[in-house]
């Protein structure tokens, strides 16, 4: 089984301070990426109807917010709904 919620706030803060580049995964499709402008962006990778999709968590979200969003995405997928379309 895949490990989720593996990041600490300290690791997240260190990645953000490091600037753009690379993805930092929290498991379950959730990852953090820092934009070229230095903005931290939480994204959730998932598949719907056989296609890879990407769900963007609101800007300024904390790791806890992003984890809640990941759980919501998983719930919607289990119901057969596309999270991007529900938004």
SSE blueprint and pairings:
Layout: H1 9-17, E1 23-27, E2 30-34, E3 40-48, E4 51-56, H2 63-78, H3 83-86
Antiparallel strand pairs: 1-2, 2-3, 3-4
Global structural class: alpha+beta
How many alpha or pi helices? 3
Q: Got a strand count?
A: 4
Kindly report how far apart the N and C termini lie: 29 Å
Mean pLDDT, as a whole number? Answer: 93
The CATH superfamily bears the name: Integrase, DNA-binding domain
CATH architecture: 2-Layer Sandwich
User: What string gives the helices and strands in order?
Assistant: HEEEEHH
Estimated radius of gyration: 13 Å
CATH class reads: Alpha Beta
Strand numbers in spatial order across the main sheet: 1-2-3-4
What is the percentage of strand-forming residues?
Answer: 25-35%
Mass-distribution shape: globular
| Helix residue percentage | 25-40%
Task: State the main characteristics.
87 residues; 3 helices; 29% strand; Double Stranded RNA Binding Domain; globular; 4-stranded antiparallel sheet; alpha+beta
What does this structure look like?
This protein is an alpha+beta fold. It has a single domain, classed as Double Stranded RNA Binding Domain (2-Layer Sandwich), CATH 3.30.160.390. The protein has 3 helices and 4 strands, in the order H-E-E-E-E-H-H. A hairpin with a 5-residue loop joins strand 2 and strand 3. The longest helix is centred in the C-terminal third of the chain and has 16 residues. The radius of gyration is 13 Å and the shape is globular. The mean pLDDT is 93.
């Amino acid at each position: 089984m895949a490990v989720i919620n593996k990041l600490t706030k300290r690791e997240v803060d260190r990645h953000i301070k490091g600037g753009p580049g690379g993805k930092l995964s929290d498991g379950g499709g959730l990852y953090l990426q820092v934009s070229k402008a230095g903005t931290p962006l939480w994204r959730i990778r998932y598949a719907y109807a056989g296609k890879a999709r990407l769900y963007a968590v609101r800007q300024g979200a904390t790791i806890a917010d992003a984890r809640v969003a990941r759980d919501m995405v998983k719930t919607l997928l289990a119901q057969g709904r596309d999270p991007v379309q529900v938004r």
